[in-house]
Design a protein that fits this description.
The complex is a heterodimer of chains A (220) and B (228). Helices cover 50% and strands 8% of the residues of chain A. Chain A has 9 helices and 4 strands; from the N terminus they run E-H-E-H-E-E-H-H-H-H-H-H-H. In chain A, helix 1 runs parallel beside helix 3 and helix 1 packs antiparallel against helix 9 (191-201). The chains are: A alpha+beta (220), B alpha+beta (228).
Chain lengths: 220, 228
């Protein structure tokens, strides 16, 4: 049975990127259904919580990026979306959850916007604290599991949860350590990453609330 | 090997309540370490247990797990007989979707109706903002849909599981802030509040003495009386 993933605009939707990049990087086939935000179709199609992403698998509908990743991990055990070792898996889930409900300062200040010209945006103290925590977390993962991804050589669910952060750090030219840069480089080198980014940059929709330079819209 | 759960104040810490009540209701033994929040030294004490600096934290030997939702996932794996997630894959995905929805959402409810067990229950209209009422409507839909599909009294049937644990603090918020809930919602709240685990948490919270002014909507009244 084939899977359908309902997503929002690629340029702006951080939540949609997570399951999309996890599935694409792991070679899990699916049909993509993109629904631009703020359209009547969006309200109608976006599932019980009126949110994207939404994964449809026959009669099953799974919403929330983290719950979709859990579902995929069960449905496709060969993709090894979570680490095989129980301790590493608990660690991966803890940081995935930390991302899922946290870092609100970072998310508010540096919205995902692939098409924006790379330009530095000064960080507020709460945003700087979020960046520091993420750098410490990524550094610990690479030390413990060897990199290049958070839990070793394959891109998994935890990496997928943080993929939008990679985009935020890049777009707003955030100063990071060489180790953090190496994690970002590993993610941006994925064909799945480039595929998403190229599609996002080509989209026509512009949303003022996600353009931090509004009324100016800077494009590369 | 025995488990330790590090939590915050029972009266106020909604995140801590989730794994605590899941474990108690399912007879998973653990040792509790309570760190009163927002006091001098609280943060340092928490950081000794977890780099994220937040409660709750589950310690299992040399393993530390933080974030309520990932602790519940860990417990589900570690204690499969507790059936913290439904055994059917479809129901399980449903339970995880609504748990995640709670974990990252309902910001208005969480901001305006902070958990406070000793707050005298009555309607507080100032906290019933349009956004809070939207959250209430969505949660009532989630609960009623689950109870219809899986038969109740809990969200996924007869046992109190991870999804119930994620929403347990919401039961307290609805009660203490007097939100106008349907009879059906009330029935679910009653099922949760009838658990011995709920009462044990509640009774311990009521005995606490640490007051967090920013979580007291009736300030300078606390527990219905002027603060001394």
């Amino acid at each position: 049975m084939s899977l359908t993933l309902v997503i929002g605009n690629k340029n702006y939707s951080s939540w949609s990127l997570r399951p999309w990049i996890a599935m694409t990087a792991a070679g899990i086939p699916f049909e993509e259904k993109l629904i631009p935000f703020e359209t009547p179709e969006f309200r109608r199609e976006a599932g019980p919580a009126a949110k994207v992403p939404l994964l449809i698998d026959g009669p099953i509908r799974v919403w929330e990026s983290l719950a979709i990743l859990e579902y995929l991990a069960e449905r496709f055990p060969g993709a090894k979306l979570w680490p095989a070792d129980i301790a590493a898996r608990a660690h991966a889930r803890a940081i995935a959850s930390e991302m899922h409900a946290g870092f609100t300062a970072l998310r508010g200040h540096l919205p995902v916007n692939f098409a924006r010209k790379v330009m530095k945006r000064p960080l507020t103290p709460p945003v700087a604290a979020d960046v520091a925590r993420i750098e410490a977390m990524w550094g610990e993962c690479r030390t413990r599991y060897g990199g290049p991804f958070l839990f070793g050589t394959s891109f998994g669910a935890a990496d997928a949860m943080y993929a939008p952060v990679v985009s935020r750090l890049l777009t707003y030219d955030v100063d990071v350590s060489p180790a953090t840069r190496a994690t970002m480089d590993a993610v941006t080198a994925l064909p799945a990453w480039r595929q998403w980014r190229d599609a996002g940059v080509a989209e026509p929709w512009v949303y003022a609330e996600d353009e931090v330079d509004w009324p100016q819209v800077h494009r590369a | 090997m025995s488990l330790t759960l590090v939590i915050g104040n029972k009266n106020y810490s909604s995140w801590s309540m989730r794994p605590w009540i899941a474990m108690k209701a399912n007879d998973i033994p653990f040792k509790e370490v309570l760190i009163p929040l927002y006091l001098p030294g609280s943060k340092e004490e928490i950081l000794k247990h977890s780099p994220a600096g937040k409660v709750p934290i589950l310690i299992d030997g040399d393993q530390q797990v933080w974030e309520s939702l990932s602790i519940l996932e860990y417990l589900a794996e570690r204690f499969p007989d507790a059936k913290l997630w439904p055994s059917d894959a479809r129901a399980r995905s449903h339970a995880r979707s609504i748990s995640s929805e709670m974990h990252a959402g309902f910001m208005a409810l969480r901001t305006h109706c902070t958990m406070n067990l000793w707050l005298p229950p009555k309607p507080r209209p100032a906290t019933h903002t349009p956004e809070v009422m939207e959250n209430l409507a969505r949660i009532e839909t989630i609960w009623s849909d689950c109870r219809k599909r899986y038969g109740g009294p809990f969200l996924f049937g007869k046992t109190f599981g991870n999804a119930d644990a994620m929403y347990a603090p919401v039961v307290a918020r609805f009660r203490n802030y007097g939100l106008p809930v349907t009879a059906e919602t009330r029935a679910y709240m009653d099922a949760v509040m009838a658990l011995p685990a709920w009462r044990e948490w509640y009774d311990a919270g009521m005995k606490e003495t640490w007051i967090m002014r920013h979580n007291e909507p009736d300030w300078p009244l606390v527990r219905g009386k002027p603060v001394e």
